[in-house]
């Protein structure tokens, strides 16, 4: 009998994943990951880990499977939290959930599972896996979940073929409503539990307070940039122009307020600026952490919020399908997204000597350095990279 270790989070998705695996005849073990000890930055009653751990234990008891709590807080701090601080300090926008899957769930957690004699690890992600043969070699495909509204393949965009070979996604073929129905029919305590929000396996975090643990607040200017100050890209613009981020200078606009630290803000952000009196809401167009400046513009259609393309350094390019890796000088059409839940957009990938360039058919809103861009062939996630 094949053994599967399920990452029981205390939520309905992983609970049903464990149930389905047991029904399929696997030897199922439930593990809860404790990743955080500092309660001071977690919003009260928003996914506290103690409650989640208890719910996971009750689900395991209900299913009659062994259950353990493992403390991965040291690894989580080193690999995820320290990374977040460093990225924000550098004026970039990290995605800790993507890193959590690569560094914790499918690395540290996977190693722990294998040490317990597991053949596979399973999670409650809404995605699917399939196998094909390419040139006589087995190749694993990462596919979007059947429930398009819940598809979580983006969060797994950094996993490797080796990690995929050991992964199972039992609820990937189900709609969310079906998952809740199964949980209810089986009397699982998590059947009606709300979906968790916030950092992977931590809970909903007050980001400013969280960042202020290491990044000191310092007052700086908020500058409003008029729409007409942004140069318009011509249809025949070269690739370098299309992928270049907007460049802002203090002299392009006027000072409209003050902030407490440029490293607390990201492109596209509206909340936290606390500047009134403008006809349209202000959005962050860019930040300068060296000069401690925030550049803003009025309205969701401000041209400074949009970019036609982006670039990824070759060292940050990751192909889930290594057999489809683009050679230097080659280009290919894919669908791509720069954040979870964003609709897939038509894009051309161009592999150059030092960078991968991605040109979108339509301008994209809120492109920020540090985010992950993921590209798809239909419903298959083929690769990803960190935006430069």
CATH topology of the largest domain: Rossmann fold
Helices and strands, in N-to-C order?
EHEHEHHEEEHEHHEHEEEEEEEEEE
Structural class, please?
Answer: alpha/beta
Instruction: Please count the beta strands (DSSP E, at least 2 residues each).
Output: 18
- How is the biggest beta sheet arranged? 9 strands, antiparallel
CATH superfamily of the largest domain, called what? HUPs
Distance between the termini: 46 Å
Name of the CATH first level of the largest domain? Alpha Beta
Rg over CA atoms, rounded to whole Å, is 22 Å
Number of folding domains? 3
Total helices: the number is: 8
The pLDDT mean sits at: 92
- Binned, the helix content reads 10-25%
Low-confidence stretches: none
Shape label = globular
Return the CATH architecture of the largest domain. 3-Layer(aba) Sandwich
Strand content: 25-35%
